[in-house]
């Protein structure tokens, strides 16, 4: 973590009496699990390099380097890092979070926000700099204007369907039939087909495909090859995996590994 915090800020995650915005950076090596916790301030979580997975009881969000996840004040969440991660967080005073998303959301970063964050980081040693207040206002207004991106995986709400989702998250390559999954959830195939979209917004097949694609980002960030990633996730055709990845993320897996996703 990059010290120091602005003078007078004992806890940048919860101190609502301090500056409007506090920027904190951290470098993490290897796979790390951050246990469930919450903050008194709102948090915008992003990475300069690497990948973070954020989880709540409602679902899972991915944070590649062209996006960030907004976490409202008081939201219980946990996180996993994949590979080497140079991460950053912006903690926004709770009283300034009106108009910001009330649920976690993946936001696509703007060049303006990136450069504003870097400038604010450089002012840790100069808390009285007259530019600070202006930059803090830019951060809050820019977060309000950022477009949301669909890099989340909503979880079902009923206990029976959660069993299916957890099974697919644990083993994305599973090829069970609709009847097999229905038996696991102790419901009829017709009920499963009807309830899964109601609870998640996706059919079971589309949810499974989405789970595999999001997992592919994690595996690639951890250093797995494109071929190894496709095979681990159960794709019989490497080219089919590459084509689906490009349709979903705008770049091929190889381009993503090179960091070309920033221009997608």
From TrEMBL:
Pfam families: HTH_18
Domain HTH araC/xylS-type residues, every copy: 159-259
Molecular function GO labels: DNA-binding transcription factor activity; sequence-specific DNA binding
Entry keywords, A to Z: DNA-binding, Repressor, Transcription, Transcription regulation
Protein name: Helix-turn-helix transcriptional regulator
Source organism per UniProt: Variovorax terrae
């Amino acid at each position: 973590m990059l010290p120091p915090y602005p003078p007078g800020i004992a806890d940048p995650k919860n101190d609502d009496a301090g500056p409007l915005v506090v920027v904190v950076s951290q470098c993490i090596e290897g796979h790390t699990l951050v246990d469930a916790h919450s903050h008194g301030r709102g948090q915008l979580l992003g990475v300069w390099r690497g990948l973070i997975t954020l989880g709540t009881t409602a679902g899972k969000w991915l944070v590649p380097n062209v996006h960030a996840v907004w976490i409202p004040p008081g939201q219980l969440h946990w996180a996993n890092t994949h590979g080497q991660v140079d991460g950053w967080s912006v903690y926004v005073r709770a009283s300034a979070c009106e108009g910001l998303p009330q649920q976690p959301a993946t936001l696509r970063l703007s060049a303006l926000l990136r450069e504003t964050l870097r400038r604010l980081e450089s002012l840790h040693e100069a808390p009285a700099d007259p530019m600070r207040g202006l930059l803090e206002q830019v951060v809050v207004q820019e977060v309000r204007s950022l477009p949301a991106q669909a890099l989340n995986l909503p979880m079902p709400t009923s206990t029976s369907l959660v069993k299916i989702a957890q099974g697919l998250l644990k083993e994305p390559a599973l090829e069970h039939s609709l009847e097999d999954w229905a038996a696991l959830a102790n419901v009829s195939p017709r009920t499963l087909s009807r309830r899964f979209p109601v609870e998640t917004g996706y059919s079971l097949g589309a949810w499974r495909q989405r789970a595999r694609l999001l997992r592919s980002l994690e595996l690639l960030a951890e250093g797995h090859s494109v071929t190894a990633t496709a095979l681990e996730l159960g794709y019989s055709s490497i080219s089919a995996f590459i084509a689906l990845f490009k349709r979903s993320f705008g770049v091929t897996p190889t381009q993503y590994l090179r960091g070309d996703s920033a221009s997608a």
